[in-house]
Amino acid sequence: MSLNDFIKQLDDLVESASKRFEDAINQTDHQVLEETRVEFLGAKSGKLKEAQKGLGKVAKEDKPAAGKRFNEVKTRLEELFQAAADVITGGGKKGKAEALDVTLPGIRPRLGHVHPITQTIDELKDIMGRLGFTAVEGPEIEDDWHNFEALNIPLEHPARDPLDNFYLNIAAASHGGGNQLLRSQTSTVQIRVMEESQPPIRIVSLGRVYRPDEIDATHYAMFHQIEGLLVDTNVTMADLKYVLRLFASSYLGGDIEIRFRPSFFPFTEPSVEVDMRWQDTWLEFGGAGMVDPNVLKAVGYDPEIVTGFAFGLGVERLCMRRHGINDIRYLYDSNTKFLAQF
Ligand code: DAH
């Protein structure tokens, strides 16, 4: 092919392209514009691509001139397309990025949401608040005194075993240089509250506790408990059962039955395991009992004058039961697809 023929072919291409892009502008039609773009600039079989083949057929010495011309035409076609696109999308000369069609729906910002455990904590606080219990907090780094001693758990008790607790390698700040640890239970807060106030007491405390348990579907090294404490005159186990039943019914829905099974905790006497009946099965949710006189004495109360009840339940268990979650690990592996359901 001669250089002249090649150039003539390119000129024809520019001429027909300008007509066709002009048509697209006149029709103000995105579809026509796109078709025109593919017809001329399409990467596979566009007319420009077709013309490029002629480049290989011109004589060797004409190649530089032919190539230069080809590149000019390519730029020209791209300009024609861009200009038509700008007019059709209403962006004028400024280009695509600033073209704004105010009639299109807006882009919805993605909102985060509250974690199911935090939702559960908020709801449990609300329920207990309606029953007259004030929500209080306690530290997650505790000392021997609040986690064990004052709760009537003596030094030789297996619950204090280093293998069952996260002891910290730092010096204790209070109570005679004992150990510090990540608290293994929220019962610590009972002591902190009673040390600082006088009966009547009616509190709940919800928060994290830590145990070096092997992780599986029902165990995690960190979980949450709800701790309740009521101290007053003439408190009985009937009060405890009534409060727990109201609590369970409010959270799980319907009239939930409560079952007490005899148990042992150093800080309550008598002690019970608390089961709730859920769809014909009894499920264990935690422990409870009447506050042990030794605990009342440890904080300077007179067990001859006041009595109290306490309970500690697993927040994850409640949340999992209510939502039908069957593996605690789902709650903590930060999979937003899972968490977004709640
Ligand atoms: N602290 C106990 C635990 O973590 C649960 C518990 C049992 C709390 C009896 C109480 C209670 O307040 O009275 O296993």
UniProtKB/TrEMBL annotation:
Please tell me where this protein is predominantly located.
cytoplasm
Query: Is Ligase there in the keyword field?
Result: yes
State a single Gene Ontology molecular function.
ATP binding
Aminoacyl-transfer RNA synthetases class-II family profile domain mapped to chain residues: 124-318
Give the enzyme's EC designation.
Answer: 6.1.1.20
Identify the cofactor(s). Answer: Mg(2+)
> What sections of the sequence does the record tag as coiled-coil?
none
Answer yes or no on keyword Transmembrane.
no
Q: Which UniProt keywords apply?
A: Aminoacyl-tRNA synthetase, ATP-binding, Cytoplasm, Ligase, Magnesium, Metal-binding, Nucleotide-binding, Protein biosynthesis
| SUPFAM superfamilies tied to this protein | Class II aaRS and biotin synthetases, tRNA-binding arm
Subcellular localization, as worded in the UniProt entry = Cytoplasm
Q: Cofactor binding mode, per the note?
A: Binds 2 magnesium ions per tetramer.
BP GO terms, sorted:
phenylalanyl-tRNA aminoacylation
What does the entry list under GO cellular component? cytoplasm
Q: Where does Mg(2+) bind?
A: 269
Q: Which reaction does it catalyse?
A: tRNA(Phe) + L-phenylalanine + ATP = L-phenylalanyl-tRNA(Phe) + AMP + diphosphate + H(+)
Q: Which family does it belong to?
A: Belongs to the class-II aminoacyl-tRNA synthetase family. Phe-tRNA synthetase alpha subunit type 1 subfamily.
Q: How does it assemble?
A: Tetramer of two alpha and two beta subunits.
Q: Which NCBIfam families match?
A: pheS (TIGR00468)
The record's section on HAMAP family has: Phe_tRNA_synth_alpha1
- UniProt protein name: Phenylalanine--tRNA ligase alpha subunit
